[in-house]
Amino acid sequence: MKRPVCTIIILTCFLVSGFAFEVKSFDRAETSKIGNVSGRTIPESLFQEAFSGYINSRLEKKNIEIIISKFTVTGNKMLPAGEVSLKIFPKEREEQLSGHVRLTAIVSIDNVPRTEVTLSGWIDVFDSVVCASRRLNKGKIITSDDIYLAKKNISRLHPNILTDMDQAVGLMLKHDVMENDCLKDNMLQKATIVKRGDMVTILAELGGIRVTAPGRILEKGCLGEYIRVQNAVSKKNINARVINDSTVMVDF
Q1: How many angstroms separate the most distant Cα atoms in the chain?
Q2: How close are the terminal C-alpha atoms of the chain, in Å?
Q3: Confidence tier at 23 by pLDDT (50, 70, 90)
Q4: Which of 81, 177, 178, 244 lies 20 to 30 angstroms, CA to CA, from 162?
């Protein structure tokens, strides 16, 4: 019984006193062995297999489909006999995993680097994207009923397309969106749900015990943001996280 009583006392003192609480390249390379060669060039199919393996290893999400087309190999030379291994890494500074992709492969024989080969191809990636389930007007705060997931070729869509519904729910539209349109992150912004002067409940929880106190918002805030709130009892200011339009929470 002592611990819950102590916890209640701590939380109550906190809320009443208004105590301010602050919540304090080659490294991407992959090596693969592709068997032995004997005085010949490496078959293009083995390079393509390594190319595909690299792309798949970088796409962490499940249920993604990729199609490789227009694959080419540049610099494939005659090699001496021995065991072949490839070290593959991005050719560009910014790694690209869809659309036109270029990779560099260092070809080694018996662990001795022999030549550098350029691999390129067009990657079509089919992934689930967020679409509007109906016409949505500017200023609408997105709910799960307003959107759905559809599998599309993201290689031919805007790079800022959303692929997770959680990326959109709770945000506000900057402009109108038509039914079945794909949503992009630049279409959305955080929605202000509390503003200066609003009265809210300040909530504090610890060890399964919760204590509340009335509070007044001192600055506008969006869902999940930390803002300044005045404890209406103690008149002290604290930092709290916006939970909804009527509740803020102090995190321990």
Answers
A1: 85
A2: 22
A3: very low
A4: 244
Q: For residues 95 and 77, what is the distance between their CA atoms, to the nearest angstrom?
A: 26
Which domains are delineated in the chain? 29-125 (3.10.129.10), 126-190 (3.90.1210.10), 192-250 (2.30.30.760)
Between these two residues, 1 and 140, which has the higher pLDDT value?
A: 140
Lowest mean pLDDT among 96-100, 136-140, 164-168: 96-100
Is the pTM higher than 0.70? The answer reads: no
Question: Residues 121, 71: contact at Cβ < 8 Å?
Answer: yes
Residues 14-37: b if buried by 16+ CB within 10 A, e if exposed: bbeebeeeeeeeeeebeebebeeb
Q: Which amino acid is at 129?
A: V
Q: Considering only CA atoms, which of 48, 152, 154 is closest in space to residue 99?
A: 154
CB neighbours of 76 closer than 8 A, spacing ≥ 6?
41, 42, 44, 47, 117
What pLDDT digit, counting tens, does each position of 98-116 carry?
888 999 999 888 888 888 9
